Amino acid sequence: MRRWATAILLGVALALSACGYRFAANGKLPPGQSAVAIPMFVNRTAEANVEAYLTAAFRENYARRGLLGGDSSPSRLEGTVTAVTISPILAAPGRDPTFRIHIRVHLQGAKASGEVVQAWVDESEEFPSGGDVVLTGANRETALRRLVETVARSDSALLLVR
Questions:
Q1: What are 85-135's pLDDT values in tens digits?
Q2: I need a labelling partner for 156 at 20 to 30 A (CA). Which of 21, 43, 91, 108 fits?
Q3: DSSP assignment, residue 132?
């Protein structure tokens, strides 16, 4: 699954590069854009708090690069969580099962110029069963947090400039 997501992201990057677009280098924004506002993401799933986790991860990622702005920033990055699924992975006899958690997020970046760039991010993370419900839940939560960090680091496609 991770290979498909990588292949799709690479395909989008290649397609956009053929249109005269390029990636913003070194975590810098294009001229005229000093910071990006990141409002709370929208959650269209039954997974509680996933939008808060994603929003915090994206804000931290941008803050680390000195690019996080307030609500009045001319550029915006918005996100919608459209799917969070968990599926079991077949386990060998005598071993605890493993699960895979998958997330799909729609990202939309609006530049100061008014141009809008969109991308879909699909990522997944595996986590082990803990032998009991409490430990499995803790493993699931840890996997979800790692997954959110992965999605937040994959947003470079939105920093496109001509």
A1: 999 997 778 778 899 999 999 999 887 778 888 889 999 999 998 878 999
A2: 43
A3: S
Instruction: Tell whether the torsion through CA atoms of 128, 9, 145 and 52 is positive or negative.
Output: negative
Please tell me the distance from the alpha carbon of residue 161 to that of residue 61, in angstroms, as a whole number: 19
Q: Which residues contact 90 (CB under 8 A, 6 or more apart)?
A: 97
Residues 80, 69: Cα–Cα separation, whole Å = 20
Q: DSSP strand E in the chain: where?
A: 22-23, 36-37, 42-43, 75-89, 98-110, 116-128, 160-161
* Residues β-bridged to residue 77: 109
Instruction: Report the predicted TM-score, pTM, of the whole model to 2 decimal places.
Output: 0.74
